[in-house]
UniProtKB/TrEMBL annotation:
The gene is ZMYND12. InterPro entries: TPR-like_helical_dom_sf, Zinc_finger_MYND_domain, Znf_MYND. Residues 17-54 form the MYND-type domain. Keywords: Metal-binding, Zinc, Zinc-finger. This is Zinc finger MYND-type containing 12. One of its GO terms (molecular function) is zinc ion binding. The keyword 4Fe-4S does not apply. It comes from the Eukaryota.
Length: 362
């Protein structure tokens, strides 16, 4: 982390904390353009996002030089907007990743950075604000700060209502967050209504059996699980597992083929599909949770346990966490012994060999 640099505030210059907007007394020694009210807020910002964007803030916060021509000024403004858009992308992606990892407190600084940049670039009424409001809402739900979460969701809801060009993917995310809010408040019927809307809007964009739709099914399953409606919950958990299993199997098969083509005598093929960081984090959150539920269930269902363990093993393989892939594969081998015959045994064996070869190569 950038070291603490105490300030003696120059006369006439009002310095405010990056996180709380209170008077600042500490300066980041990296960019020398970011200020904090205390060390705790500096550490929180660093852990969340500042470490990744410290150097990127310098051209944004350095005073613009005087230009002699309108063309130079226009070029400078266009460059500044592009830099801000780049930072919006970085801060939003990082906030989403932290959210999937369950680091709710760390989400707030990254999402707050994103919010201020979006307002600066797109304005206070733009639909581009909605994804950031939703990140802040979900983080506050995770922190148990439901009143604050409700405020962000209200802002998101009214922005969507007033917008004429809001995509169904954003509407899906809005209803998912409303579903999570009502679930946290114990209002399960209202939660399920919003989660059903989430699935509907997601389906219009990606289809009913897509990984981007599966999150709605997963959260609905959690509601039924909490209501002790185990048959419905079990069916939805199976649906989510099937969706991710199919998707990850396609990626693993593609990677296996690419590995074969990169061997002597083959042309290397790097065009195979892969997961992005946020998809990885969401998959790990969902599949790990279902795996825990399957393994801890009082009534064992070997075939379903094998399916989710196989899915989890593929996920670890694709994210190159080969040690965890090996641990998961050992559980998979134990579970598969309880099934008389499994058509996927050959594919599983090939995956396990590949995992072991990756570990041996380290």
């Amino acid at each position: 982390m950038a070291q603490v640099n105490p300030l003696s505030n120059p006369k006439g210059v009002k310095l405010v904390c990056e996180l709380c907007q209170h008077p600042a007394h500490i300066q980041c020694k990296g960019c020398k353009l970011t200020y904090y009210c205390d060390v705790e807020h500096q550490r929180a910002d660093w852990a969340s996002i500042h470490e990744k964007i410290c150097h990127l803030l310098i051209p944004l916060r350095t005073p613009v030089p005087f230009f002699t021509s309108a063309e130079e000024r226009s070029h400078s403004i266009a460059q500044l907007i592009q830099r801000k858009k780049h930072l919006i992308e970085i801060t939003t992606k990082e906030a989403q990743k932290l959210l999937y990892e369950g680091r709710h407190a760390d989400v707030i600084p990254a999402a707050t950075h994103s919010l201020s940049l979006v307002i600066d670039v797109h304005g206070l009424a733009s639909v581009e604000l909605v994804p950031v409001y939703l990140l802040l809402a979900e983080a506050n739900i995770g922190l148990g700060q439901l009143t604050l979460a409700e405020e962000y969701l209200s802002q998101a809801y009214w922005t969507v209502l007033k917008s004429t060009d809001c995509s169904n993917s954003i509407r899906s995310k809005l209803h998912r967050n409303l579903g999570l809010l009502y679930a946290a408040k114990g209002e399960f019927d209202e939660s399920l209504r919003h989660l059903a809307n989430d699935v509907y809007f997601a389906s219009t964009v990606w289809g009913t059996d897509n990984i981007h739709t599966s999150g709605g099914y997963f959260h609905m399953a959690n509601i039924f699980f909490r209501q002790n409606k185990m048959d419905v919950a079990d069916s939805l958990y199976s649906e989510v597992t099937d969706i991710w299993h199919t998707h990850l199997k396609r990626l693993v098969d593609g990677q296996m083929r690419a590995s074969m083509r990169s061997a002597p005598g083959w042309f290397e093929d790097s065009s195979h599909e892969s997961l992005d960081e946020n998809e990885e984090a969401e998959a790990l959150q969902i599949i790990s949770a279902i795996c825990d539920i399957r393994e801890q269930a009082p009534r064992t269902q070997p075939a379903k346990t094998v399916k989710v363990l196989y899915t989890l093993t593929m996920l670890y393989f694709l994210t190159m966490d080969f040690q965890k892939a090996r641990e998961s594969s050992r559980k998979l081998l134990q579970a598969i012994q309880q099934i008389p015959e499994d058509n996927a045994l050959e594919d599983i064996s090939a995956l396990l060999k590949s995992i072991e070869s990756k570990l041996a190569a380290k």
